[in-house]
């Protein structure tokens, strides 16, 4: 589609949206055309017009408009609450709550949470910053709360969301580089140890596998304990990332079977789980040559742990 076609479609959409905006001026079409002097691309100009309509022009109440402006300015402050905004505006918290729901369709808390999560999603896609740094920056003070709410909004974990962007970004970067020497790819594959991921969660397993493959690792995967033991015999991994709660056995049962069938090499095992009760079995875990790793850790931290034992073997 050429640019004039895009402009025509976007102008038609803005015209329809403006008919539902209460007739406020300038119209969305006028705003879109006025922004041409900024040399922004059509999609960016369209998004700015729609964002403005949703945040301000679609809200007919001045109190709610001011509340939205405060949220946009201070959403990264973990101390920002409905009560604090109501006090700043000189209204009762219950009145602000009622007005906010009436004019935006969501509660104040939902609006604030969505703004924080959307910003977190942008940072996950556009930067390589650690997940902990991101959830702190957007106003969260608890990792599990951030993870749970992110899953609800985006239907995937923060780690999984970031992985969706890895391939396109890597491909775009590769397109700008000279064609690689085929031997270089082979050398990259041999620089890293092989890794086996045993986890019944499809999203977790494939996200970690994709990330490690893009980093040059040779990766095998399995969705249950028995398949994992078969893959372990065939792939002879140097490192195993093992889910503690497998559908057919627990992680320690798998470890005992794995150690009994391992001959020659002694692979490192990272017992990957969010079940803190496993700490009670820490002595047994160490005796089987494994290390406990929380599933809440960043994927970058997991790769560091994978690389560390590889370097010692």
Q: Could you walk me through the main structural features you see in this protein, from its secondary elements to its overall organization?
A:
With 313 residues, the chain is of the alpha/beta class. The chain folds into 3 domains: 58 residues, no CATH class; 101 residues, Arc Repressor Mutant, subunit A; 129 residues, Response regulator (Rossmann fold). It contains 16 helices and 5 strands. α1 packs parallel to α3 and α7 runs parallel beside α10. The longest helix has 19 residues.
The CATH topology label of the largest domain is: Rossmann fold
- Global geometry: elongated
E-strand count:
5
Largest sheet: 5 strands, parallel
* Mean pLDDT score: 78
Low-confidence stretches: 167-191
Number of domains: 3
Termini Cα gap: 54 Å
Radius of gyration: 25 Å
State the helicity in percent bands: 55-70%
SS-derived structural category:
alpha/beta
Helix count? Answer: 16
Q: How does the SSE layout of this entry go?
A:
Layout: H1 3-18, H2 28-34, H3 42-57, H4 62-74, H5 82-89, H6 93-104, H7 108-126, H8 131-137, H9 143-154, H10 158-175, H11 182-191, E1 194-198, H12 202-214, E2 218-222, H13 225-235, E3 239-243, H14 251-261, E4 268-273, H15 282-287, E5 290-294, H16 299-312
Parallel strand pairs: 1-2, 1-3, 3-4, 4-5
């Amino acid at each position: 589609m050429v640019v004039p076609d895009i402009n025509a479609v976007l102008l038609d959409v803005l015209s329809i949206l403006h008919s539902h905006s209460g007739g406020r001026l300038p119209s969305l079409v006028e705003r879109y055309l006025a922004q041409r002097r900024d040399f922004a691309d059509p999609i960016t100009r369209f998004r700015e017009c729609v964002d403005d309509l949703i945040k301000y022009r679609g809200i007919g109440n001045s109190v709610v408009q001011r509340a939205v402006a405060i949220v946009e300015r201070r959403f990264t402050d973990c101390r920002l609450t409905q009560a604090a905004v109501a006090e700043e505006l000189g209204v009762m918290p219950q009145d602000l709550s009622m007005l906010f729901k009436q004019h935006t369709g969501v509660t104040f808390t939902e609006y604030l949470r969505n703004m924080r999560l959307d910003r977190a999603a942008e940072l996950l896609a556009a930067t390589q910053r650690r997940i902990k740094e991101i959830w702190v920056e957007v106003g969260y003070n608890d990792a599990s709360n951030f993870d749970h709410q992110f899953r609800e909004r985006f239907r995937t974990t923060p780690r999984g969301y970031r992985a969706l962007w890895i391939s396109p970004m890597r491909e775009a970067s590769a397109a700008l580089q000279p064609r690689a020497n085929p031997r270089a790819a082979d050398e990259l594959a041999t620089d890293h140890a092989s890794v086996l991921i045993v986890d019944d969660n499809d999203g977790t397993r494939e996200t970690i596998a994709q990330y490690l493959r893009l980093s040059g690792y040779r990766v095998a995967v399995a969705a249950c304990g028995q398949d994992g033991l078969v893959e372990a015999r065939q792939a002879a991994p140097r490192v195993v990332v093992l889910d503690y709660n497998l559908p057919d056995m627990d992680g320690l049962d798998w470890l005992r079977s794995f150690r009994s069938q391992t001959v020659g090499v002694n692979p490192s095992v990272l017992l990957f789980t969010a079940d803190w009760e496993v700490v009670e079995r820490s002595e047994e875990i160490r005796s089987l040559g494994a290390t406990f790793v929380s599933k809440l850790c960043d994927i970058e931290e997991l790769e560091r742990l994978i690389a560390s034992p590889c370097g010692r073997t």
